[in-house]
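Homework help board

Subject: predicted structure for assignment chain

Our instructor gave us this sequence and asked us to write out the predicted structure in token form, then describe one feature. I got the tokens but I'm not sure how to describe them. Can anyone check?
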Amino acid sequence: GGAQAGPPKKKRSQKRKEWHQVERARRYAARKSVRFPIFTRSVLLWMLIFAMVGMAFGASGAFWWAHFNAQVTQLRDDTKDFEQREQGAAAAIDAQRNQALTQVNDALAPLSGVLADAKTVQLAQTFAPSVWFVSTFDDAGKPSAGSAFALVSDQNEALMATSYGVVKAAALNPGPEITVSKVTKDGTEEVKAELWATDERNDLALLLVKRGGIPVLDWAPDDVQAKALGTRMYAVSGLGGNGASLSPGMVLDTSADGFQHNASIGNHFRGGPIVTADGKVMGVASVNYWPSNFDPAEVHFSIQINTVCKRVMECGGGTKKKKSKDVQPPADAKAQPGAPPAGSPKPND
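My token output:
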């Protein structure tokens, strides 16, 4: 038989064309096989990165949220009893303030008397209209000075209490003149006085002054005088730049004979009133009243003001008046010779 013919031989151009097609398909397949895994791995990598970042932010947020909640809880625990603690703090502050005030007051206590004295002494001029300066002479003809204060007064005359030691020489007949004077804004006013009654033992004397309208000081109530021990008192003189002056002291003892005090009593204070801190008369200043029969030196005795009614005046029914010629003075008291002028003053206490 004859030889079998093979497939027809392809042309070179046809072969080249087929090779290009195959090569193109191979390259395309290769590109596809490589591109997809790279893209997939990139996506997965970014997803992993985002996941890790998200987990990091989540963990951080969880941590800070837990920390914030812990702080809030702590703050709530710290402030849940805030009102109670605020009240306790306010009470503690008040207690400390009160304690501080107490300590300050305790520290100032020794000075309280001095401060009160300084304030009261400055008010001496309030006593000036009622307390007058007394001038006369003693038995040896030397000047004798003291003070006197009005017990009762009307439009024409006044009765004034003083110390017997100041006007002792005037109790003799004839005796020296007695003058009471007062410094005023217009100058010095002087008025002659008449010795009306005396009580030497209690160092009391009563003067009649022909000058009315003299203010009368109030007397301290009996209960105040009974509780005077340890209280502040002031001796008042009718001599001073403001018309009067005060000498502070304290009541050291009380008895049926009067009271004892440590106020300085100069000669011009004799016979002046001894007043309480509120200006009420509780006694008569004296340097010659010695109920214990010895000189008490710088610690003086004073007769209580109520004794004036028993010794040199008539007190009762809300009035005070000089003893009339029909009323005999006490056995140990001396009455100035002569009858009183008509119309004894009888003002209310």
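Reply (TA_rk): Your tokens look well-formed. For the description, you could write something like this. The radius of gyration is 57 Å. That's the kind of observation they're looking for.
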